[in-house]
Amino acid sequence: MSSSTTNTTTISTAGPPSRRNTELAMLVFAVIIPVFAYANAGLALSDEMPSGMLSYGLGLGLLAAVGHLVVRKFAPYADPLLLPIATLLNGLGLVLIWRLDQSRRLAQRAKDAGMAFAPSAPNQLIYSALGVALFVGVLILLKDHRILQRYTYISMVVALILLILPMFFPARFGARIWITLGSFSIQPGEFAKIIIAVFFSGYLMVKRDALALASRRFMGLYLPRGRDLGPILVVWGMSILILVFETDLGTSLLFFGLFVVMLYVATERTSWIVFGLLMSAAGAVGVATFEPHVQSRVDAWLQPFEVAKNGGSDQIAQALMAFGSGGVFGTGLGQGNSDLIGFAANSDFILATVGEELGLAGTMGLLLLYGLIVERGVRTALAARDPFGKLLAIGLSAAFAIQVFVVAGGVMGLIPLTGMTMPFIAQGGSSVIANWALVAILIKVSDTARRPAPAPAPTTDAEMTQVVRP
Amino acid sequence: MNKPLRRIAIFCGLLVLALLVRDNWIQYVQADELKNRDGNHRVLIARYSQPRGNIIVDGQPITGSAETNGIDFKYKRTYKDGPMWAPVTGYASQAYDANQIEKIEDGILTGNDDRLFFNRTIDMITGKKQKGGDVITTLNRKAQEAAFKGLGDKKGAVAALDPRTGKILALASTPSYDPSKIAGATSKDKEAWIGLQPKKAKDDPMLNRALRQTYPPGSTFKVVTAAAALENGKYADIDGPTNSPDPWKLPLSTQPLPNEGDIPCKNASLRQALRYSCNTVFGKLGDDLGKEEMRKEAEKFGFNETIDTPVRAYSSVYPEDMDRPGNAMSAIGQFDNRATPLQMAMVAAAVANDGKLMKPYMVDSLRAPNLNTIEQTDPEQMSQPLSSENAQKLQSMMETVVKEGTGTSAQIPDVTVGGKTGTAQHGVANSKNPYAWFISYAKGDDGSPVAVAVVIEGSNTLRGDIAGGRLAAPIAKGVMQAVLETERDK
């Protein structure tokens, strides 16, 4: 930012570096690495190069190229790392899903359950393409992220509708988080995450002063006035209720986190964290006491092996053993047995496959890639010049970070398992599409943030102006 | 707004850090535990993903591998003469894990052992499949055959040792089972497995009686009592009178300790007492020596201690808490003291080896797939229960037993054989068929190459005179002859 201000009177037309070529170079790696991973998995599984190698490489390359060209044209100053990392994660995810498609064990499992075993990778490739299409759409149609500010209350309504809708559709695998239309189903929670961040940003930007300043002091805490707090409480309460009825813990936790983070950033009041945590804790305890579903999750987390032995779900135990069996360097792609997890091996539990086949090294690398996306997002928030952009960027980044923590922590046995998808790598259309949209918005905000400020019109009397010091 | 933003950045960093720490915890710190824990199917998958190394006796494998190509398992374990070797090999099953050598040396047999790291790396570079190594045992095929065939359809066990080194030469247990029948993961294997469980099979064929069943040792324990007496210096002259009345009343009791039949036990010398198996003499000896002395001597022979051969042999027992009559009864092997066949073979072996007890072992060496030896077991002295001089006295006594005592059916022409019979009563009021015992050794040109213990559980044919000499001694004789034969061929 400081460099742009010194730029006003120079003759040079070169602006601050846009870093588009850096992005291009990184993208090349982001395409090549998954292609090699694909070859590796294929060779390990069947001793020959996988037949879909060329089309897969071209497909991923094409998506990356389209993404890059659109960024170059419509967001030239965007952060150079976001697109390559998203591409890399998506590419690796496709390889992992393809690898699990080849599992004889999972095929047998589906057969035993009387279901046809359909490979998931081709669909996932289509979803990825849709995701990139949405990414392109956001970049082209959203001229400026501040436009979103106009839709603050509409966002609220849309988010609530998205959250309420699944209640009217049948539950799948114990959770009511899908909207099913024929053979087609979407998980609206993934999209609601973005839309609710838009609502919080718009609302808090307007109300932040009121929330921060017009408050009463009570027991060392600043309590806001009811009328300022009202709409937020309504959203918070409704989202909890809905999520309780839909038994989707992960999303619940995500909204709590998002809520607290954005309140804190907007008001700069530490008391909000305390307040938010109290509300969250109350919600969590309340849910846990009357939801047997939650109770069983906590048991499975505390004693994964005992629960598995006593006939409960052995998913966590299997996931932990997959991680342990991978060790430091892993078995190599295609050579592990993470498919022993069985159900949801390629969606919620896909990180276990990373753990077993790529080892501690690979898993840490993957976690750091997620960390980098979050870091670029936070950096964007810091660089953004407008409060709405700041709030939106930090909201989306924090939501992303919390989601990664909740999923990875659940699969690794750090916290109770909640059933969410690992962004970009897990099988599932809604997730991959929504996360491409999230990255698109971050890229748009970062483009605005890093774009050099327009040069002020040169004034003729600038040189004559003198500061007179007495 | 930037201050809270930075704090949120730190918070997000902490979330990622927590994940990284947790990842290190499960993939590094706890990795081995998770990798090898029960219930991790990968252990079994790895075990059968390539032909398994073999267990070898006399240069010939007694195991094999067959290709099955299932979803989980590519190979299956096979056994040659499974029932005969089961007490040695144990089993390796796709569905039911493994035990004994198959389990203990699993790392070598699958090729996963750390010591094979170099081989694995070379194989990986040259693109070869991982191979398992072999376990070379100390067993003697002929001796094992003699033991297993000798036991026949009787219920019992045989353990034979080379007293000079502690090498286990034979280890038979009947009734036995065929580990091939439970090696797979099919419904047939499951059926066989269920049929072998103690609930279904009342003879418990999977029990390794030679190492893991303790029996009252009966009169064979008199050898230990005699050793204690000699070591104690109480009776230096084995041919002198022992100052023991007949009948002799148990201490603190009015109950006399009876002898079996009408035998000359009054003031009998140690030699005669062992020859006729006098309960009165040895009961009194045990009482005179006292509980502590007796227990100490028994422990020197290996009692009250588990022995890893490396397959674990259960601890034989000489209890610490016994009253005086109990101790006296134990001195003739009829109370709470119990011994495994291996333990009694060790007693005979220690005597035969001039008092030095060698630690028994059955894995001679471990061999890498490229035929390099990666571990060699060296003979190791475990203890010295009696001095060389006393050992020779005891040998002379045991040789009398075979020459003209209760153990004549173990005589081998032109070979010096020493032994002791035993008939252990058990059950409420001795109602059950007694156990027939025989322990013995044979001498060769160069020390004693074989000591053997045989136990036969109550065979109902010989209720009245089940004496070890009739049932067990011929089996011991067969085993000793087999070993002597292989010694000669060397």
UniProtKB/TrEMBL annotation, chain A:
GO CC annotation: cell division site; plasma membrane
Pfam assignment, any one: FTSW_RODA_SPOVE
GO molecular function, one term: lipid-linked peptidoglycan transporter activity
Intracellular or extracellular location(s): Membrane
Record-annotated membrane-spanning stretches: 24-41, 53-71, 80-100, 125-142, 151-169, 189-206, 227-245, 251-267, 272-290, 349-370, 391-418, 424-443
Topology in membrane: Multi-pass membrane protein
Region annotated Disordered, chain positions: 450-470
Keywords: Cell cycle, Cell division, Cell shape, Membrane, Transmembrane, Transmembrane helix
Gene Ontology biological-process entries: cell division; regulation of cell shape
PANTHER family associated with the record: CELL CYCLE PROTEIN, PEPTIDOGLYCAN GLYCOSYLTRANSFERASE RODA
Record protein name field: Cell cycle protein
UniProtKB/TrEMBL annotation, chain B:
One function term, GO molecular function aspect: penicillin binding
Start and end residues of each Penicillin binding protein A dimerisation domain: 52-135
Residue ranges annotated for the Penicillin-binding protein transpeptidase domain, each copy included: 156-481
Protein's recorded name: Cell division protein FtsI/penicillin-binding protein 2
GO CC, any one term: plasma membrane
Origin species: Streptomyces iranensis
GO biological process: cell division; cell wall organization
Record's keyword terms, sorted: Cell cycle, Cell division
Lineage: Bacteria, Bacillati, Actinomycetota, Actinomycetes, Kitasatosporales
The keyword Transport is annotated on this UniProt entry: no
